[in-house]
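Incident log, structure service

09:12 report received: a user says their structure output differs between two submissions of the same chain.
09:20 pulled the input from the user's history:
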Amino acid sequence: MDGWLILNKSEGMTSTQAGSAVKRLFHQKKIGHAGTLDPFACGVLPLALGEATKTMPFLMNRPKSYKFTLSFGTQTATGDTEGEVIATSAHRPTMHDIESALSLFTGSIQQTPSIYSAIKIKGKPAYARARAGEDIDMPSRQVEIYELTLENYDGESATLNVHCGTGTYVRSLGRDLALHLGTVGHLVMLQRTCVGHFNIDCAISLENIKKISDNSLACVLLPIRSVLDDIPAVSVSLQKAVKIRHGQAVEMDEVNSLSISVLCDDKLIALGHVQDNMFYPNRVFNI
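09:34 re-ran on a clean worker, output below:
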């Protein structure tokens, strides 16, 4: 089976564990996930099965959306419930304080990821170095926050929604927001609600997948082309399709394009680029 599975990952398992479970259920040899979710986080985890793994780069850098709950008064080393407490504060912001601060965390902002993030430093994840007791100087980075809104506040914890660019660390966003408000805080809930145009409403849990019989599993997969909506698609003849499948360039009356998908009989056969009226395949699909 080839296609995209939009998994609703539960809290408590790694993305690798989730992928391995799906791999067994679908009897797959190849599987990949677009955008890691660690055990603390839950929600949308797009999984590419079979030939769909060749289209993963088209989803990796898409904007993402998250819902998170920020609890004020306690800061942890990891920015969530799994780390040790490193600071406390008795101050609590008002709802007006929070709403007034959101615009300062919208747009292009500088952010310093947690030392417990998966960012690699000299080939090794930062969290692995941190847990080994190494001193780590995390560089700041520019990230894009397209929208940040307050959903609810009970005087102790605030639930917010953020739509952001790739590379944004929501734990760091919560930490920095709390510090700006004159207090400290950590995340007690983190749910990814959207990756590109795949949202939580079209995601399916492992528990529900297990209830589906083997011969019906294909019904929960989305077509490989689901992640290619924003690049041009061109249909070619069977004769040209044969050449493309063998990695050969073919004539194509299209304007120059860095990314283009090629179909034959409405089936995806290749991804590539057009230059000087010639199509050059970069990825060929065996479906």
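09:41 both user submissions now match this output. Likely a transient worker issue. Closing.
09:42 reviewer note: DSSP finds seven helices and 18 strands in the chain. Residues 25 and 63 are 29 Å apart (CA to CA).
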